[in-house]
Design goal:
186 residues, mainly alpha, 2 domains, 83% helix, rod-shaped, transmembrane helix
Length: 186
């Protein structure tokens, strides 16, 4: 593969990035080719040493999306970062998607319990309207207790959700660093 083919493939694979970011990356790889040619290597040798433009773009896009979700953790940014990390290899399908689904399940169930406990006094009101003679103060007190417990659970889930999002972003960064070529030991 020649320098022009390599850079063209890399540029087309980096379309999700802005023009300025793509230009900066392309210039970095042009420098790799210039340095390699000065050292007496052929363009094909340099391209082989750099690796596949598609794999390079997957790694760069994964890093880009993880930085973006780290800066602003929106749902869209989170999903783009997850899909970019999964795109690095089939093994990541299990390693990234499995924990993400488990995490979402835990967060969803925690919020569902908290909200349902908070709304439990409404069930007593509905029961009072549907069956006026079956009202019991015990049920009212239990529903008020559940409502208070639900408020505490919901407040706790707010912190748990923030903690898990930050932790999962760190996990994605670790995974991408591992796929890119291993972790650096200090």
């Amino acid at each position: 593969m020649t320098k022009d083919q390599f850079l063209k493939n890399l540029d087309s694979a980096l379309k999700p990035l802005s023009q300025a970011e793509r230009q900066d990356i392309i210039q970095d790889y042009e420098e790799h080719f210039l340095i390699g040619v000065e050292e007496g290597k052929t363009e094909q040798d340099i391209a082989e040493a750099l690796g596949s433009p598609n794999q390079i773009s997957k790694e760069l896009l994964a890093s880009y999306h993880i930085k973006k979700v780290d800066a602003k953790a929106t749902t869209g940014n989170m999903f783009r970062a997850i899909w970019a990390a999964i795109g690095l290899g089939f093994f990541n399908l299990v390693i990234v998607l499995g924990p993400f689904i488990a995490l979402i399940g835990l967060i969803f169930s925690g919020w569902a319990v908290g909200i349902s406990f908070v709304l439990s006094p409404l069930l007593i009101l509905i029961d009072l309207v549907l069956q006026p003679g079956a009202f019991e103060f015990f049920n009212l007190f239990i529903s008020i207790l559940l409502c208070g417990l639900g408020i505490f659970i919901s407040i706790g889930m707010l912190y748990v959700t923030k903690y898990f999002i930050k932790g999962f972003i760190r996990y994605l960064k670790y995974n991408v660093a591992l796929v890119k070529g291993g972790l650096k030991h200090d």
